[in-house]
Write a sequence for this structure.
């Protein structure tokens, strides 16, 4: 695509390509030094970053952003400390670049191996959450990729302040300040230009709602990694340990309800529904969770103040709020069929003490993360020991689940010979 109609994108793209050449051959100590400097700079510039974030919050409230979006947008000292800790956790991770694997020596004496290399330039389009600016920057730098970032207008001031901290950290370590660049223009047509800037960008990662993902898939001429939309399920099996049910359900729904791995649908075996649902409802009431109930669960919970009959779309909704859909099912087969029909293939869980049921759930649920007796909230790069992630992919190619360092590399074939020629 001709990007000259977008002067900022054309400049950023050319600079990213040049930076990617430097990053491709940067050694691990240099990249780690940059990451340490970024973490320090985020903390050193805390006042400026929080002031910028306050401006975004004020403008968001004036624009009528929902409580869920404002919660995603908000930064405070604790969240900035978490951002810095997340960057430092990437420092501690093994650098995948340069790793050789699947090597073999052929009968003709050629030594053939695959070697991990950076993808090149990663384009990220995201909404609301300014921490994504640093998460993506850190993982791209460690994996040797340049990054072009385009955040949402609701976080423009916060993203600018955080991106500035990233650039200062890169410069301090001797890496190009253009290794991570934030596009300032909010014109939607520029986003369309990003999606078609094949000469500059090698992979696009959209992080946001279904509308953004659809727009990216419909307009991109570059490979797009989609994910992060989660209609997540927990199925309480007939053999479930009652003591595990409420803690798992409460954590999955309440611990942070505005994110993609939060629980949306609770399925309960009919033989346990009358026993377990009142206690679950009472526990969730502590956090004012609204319950959207199918007819059978509503019959059990109709006297509960926060229970109401489910609407036609409630089992196909990512609530991102303190709302939970509940359905009673008669068997594991029914639960599996419901998940098959309604899951977005993000994160789904079973609570059971029956090993064969657990393994059937693991085998038959086609999601990026499948849990047995644990909260869906663990689907996260940091929780999986990967550091942060640039996205949680629900695709099958080329990566699935939290996308961290290894998922931001590709490989090339390296062939070592001693004069061989093909007969």
């Amino acid at each position: 695509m001709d990007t000259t109609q977008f002067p900022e994108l054309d400049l950023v793209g050319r600079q990213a390509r040049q930076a990617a050449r430097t990053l491709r051959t940067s050694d691990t100590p240099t990249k780690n030094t940059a990451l340490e400097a970024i973490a320090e700079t985020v903390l050193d510039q805390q006042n400026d970053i929080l002031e910028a974030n306050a401006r975004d919050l004020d403008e968001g409230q004036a624009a009528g952003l929902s409580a869920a979006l404002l919660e995603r947008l908000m930064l405070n000292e604790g969240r900035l400390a978490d951002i810095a800790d997340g960057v430092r956790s990437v420092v501690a991770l093994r650098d995948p670049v340069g790793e050789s694997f699947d090597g073999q020596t052929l009968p003709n004496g050629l030594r053939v191996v695959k070697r991990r290399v950076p993808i090149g330039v990663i384009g990220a389009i995201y909404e609301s959450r300014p921490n994504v600016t640093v998460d993506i920057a850190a993982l791209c730098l460690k994996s040797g990729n340049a990054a072009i970032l385009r955040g949402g207008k609701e976080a423009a001031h916060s993203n600018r302040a955080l991106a500035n901290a990233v650039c200062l950290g890169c410069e301090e370590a001797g890496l190009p300040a253009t290794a991570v660049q934030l596009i300032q223009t909010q014109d939607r047509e520029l986003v369309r230009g990003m999606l078609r800037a094949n000469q500059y960008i090698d992979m696009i990662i959209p992080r946001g709602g279904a509308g953004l993902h659809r727009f990216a898939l419909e307009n991109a001429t570059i490979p797009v990694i989609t994910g992060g939309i989660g209609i997540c399920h927990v199925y309480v099996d007939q053999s479930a340990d009652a003591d595990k049910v409420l803690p798992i359900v409460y954590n999955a729904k309440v611990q942070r309800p505005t994110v993609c791995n939060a629980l949306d649908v609770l399925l309960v075996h009919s033989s346990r529904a009358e026993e377990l649902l009142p206690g679950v409802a009472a526990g969730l009431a502590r956090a004012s969770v609204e319950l959207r109930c199918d007819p059978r669960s509503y019959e059990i919970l109709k006297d509960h103040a926060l229970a109401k009959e489910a609407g036609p779309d409630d089992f196909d909704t990512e609530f991102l709020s303190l709302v939970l859909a509940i359905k009673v099912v008669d068997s594991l087969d029914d639960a599996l069929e419901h998940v098959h029909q309604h899951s977005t293939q993000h994160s789904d869980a079973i609570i059971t003490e029956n090993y064969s049921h657990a393994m059937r759930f693991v085998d038959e649920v086609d999601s990026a993360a499948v849990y047995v007796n644990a909260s869906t909230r663990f689907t996260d790069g940091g929780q999986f020991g990967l550091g942060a992630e640039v996205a949680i992919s629900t695709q099958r190619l080329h990566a699935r689940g939290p996308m961290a360092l290894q998922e931001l590399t590709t490989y090339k074939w390296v062939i070592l010979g001693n004069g061989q020629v093909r007969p």
